[in-house]
Structures are given as structure tokens and as C-alpha cells.
Write a structure and sequence with these properties.
Blueprint (H helix, E strand, L loop, with lengths): L6 H18 L9 H8 L3 H7 L3 H20 E3 L1 H4 L11 E4 H10 L1 H7 L9 H18 L11 H21 L6 H13 L12 E2 L1
Helix pairs in contact: 1-2, 4-6, 6-10, 8-9
């Protein structure tokens, strides 16, 4: 069984991930082959097959692990941010820290450029959007937002907010991150909360 904490495993997977991102910046997934990936990563085919069953499994798991890591680094406990609006206990629900999220994106600039289809011939933004929607649905369910009477159904609001936010990230990346992570975090927060009320809603998922 693979030991995920083994430094050798971590190093190998890091090399393979870096190789995949550098290759996808120039060519499509379809045109890639295992030999090119392992040569670029400087690992053997045998080592590759110790961790992945085939190219499809490799690409899917690298993207999944990256998206998971993005949210792991960006989600924070909601209590300090929402207690002025709603009674909430620690660890009841998580919210998305804009500052942490944009800092992570800046650190992993090349990977996000590939994932959002801004370089190369590939596009994986659907995976990030799906994960955002899942976390926002979880936020809504835990706080029972869908049962509250609203003029705009919460499901529509979630889709609108996440689609707009994903588009904003793509635009920021495409322009070469002309604003600092802190500046854009503050401005996005202001945009999302400019019509904020005392009632909790989907936009409260995003905090500074």
C-alpha cells in the first residue's frame, strides 16, 4: 500500500505534477503519452505505475488533488465571521477566505493558468466550479438558507455568485494579476457585500 507521507512518494508526485502542468501549458491531454510525462518528470515508467493506473487516472487525480489542496488552504471556520448575524458554533460550517484564496492562486499561478484554459489547449475550470458549488451548498444546508423565504431562490443565487467569481478569477489571471491578492480580495468582498443585510445569505460564504 502506498505511504502518502513517505518523502519519496511526495517528491515523486510533486515531480509528476510539475511535469504535467508544464506539458499541458503547451499541448492537449489527448496528445500526451506516459513516456513524455515520465521523461519530463525524470522518473521511470515503473515508478509512475506504482501510483497511477494510466494517463486518465493520473490527470484526474492530479487535478482533483490540486483542487482539494486549494480549498484546504482557503476555507476557514465561519464562527468569527458570522457570529454577528447568526448564532453559530465553532466548526459548524466553513467559509471561503478571499485573501487566502487569492494568495494561493498567485502562488500557483502557472497551474491555474492551465486549469482555466488560459494557456495550452486544456480547460478544467469545471472541477473548481463544482467544488465551489458543493461547499456553498453545504454552507446553505448547514445554515438552512434554502428554507428561508427569499425573492431570489438560493439555488439561483449560488450559481450566479460562483459563475461570476470564477469569471473574475480568470480575468485576473489573464491580465497578469495586475492587482495584488490583498487588493482584489478587498474589492471582491465589497462587490459581494455591497447590498448586504442583517440576514445571512449565499454571499456570506465569502469572507476576507
Amino acid at each position: 500500500m502506498e505511504n502518502k507521507s513517505d518523502p519519496r512518494v511526495i517528491k515523486t508526485k510533486r515531480q509528476l505534477k510539475a511535469a504535467l502542468i508544464s506539458l499541458l501549458a503547451k499541448q492537449s491531454v489527448q496528445s500526451l503519452n506516459i513516456q513524455r510525462i515520465t521523461q519530463t518528470a525524470k522518473v521511470t515508467r515503473g515508478t509512475f505505475y506504482l501510483h497511477y493506473t494510466d494517463k486518465k487516472d493520473f490527470v484526474q487525480r492530479v487535478v482533483h488533488d490540486f483542487v482539494e489542496d486549494f480549498f484546504r488552504n482557503s476555507l476557514v471556520d465561519a464562527k468569527p465571521f458570522l457570529e454577528s448575524k447568526i448564532e453559530i458554533s465553532e466548526h459548524q460550517v466553513q467559509v471561503f477566505s478571499l485573501e487566502a484564496g487569492f494568495k494561493y492562486i498567485a502562488t500557483e499561478y502557472q497551474t491555474f493558468m492551465v486549469l482555466f484554459g488560459l494557456t495550452g489547449e486544456n480547460e478544467f475550470s469545471g472541477e473548481i466550479k463544482s467544488e465551489f458549488l458543493q461547499w456553498l451548498r453545504n454552507f446553505s444546508e448547514k445554515l438552512d438558507l434554502d428554507s428561508s423565504s427569499q425573492e431570489i431562490p438560493n439555488t439561483l443565487k449560488r450559481e450566479f455568485v460562483i459563475s461570476g467569481f470564477i469569471g473574475l478569477i480568470q480575468d485576473w489571471l489573464a491580465q497578469g494579476m495586475i492587482y495584488t491578492p490583498h487588493f482584489i480580495s478587498v474589492k471582491v468582498y465589497e462587490l459581494l457585500h455591497q447590498n448586504s443585510s442583517e440576514k445571512i445569505d449565499a454571499t456570506d460564504f465569502f469572507v476576507i
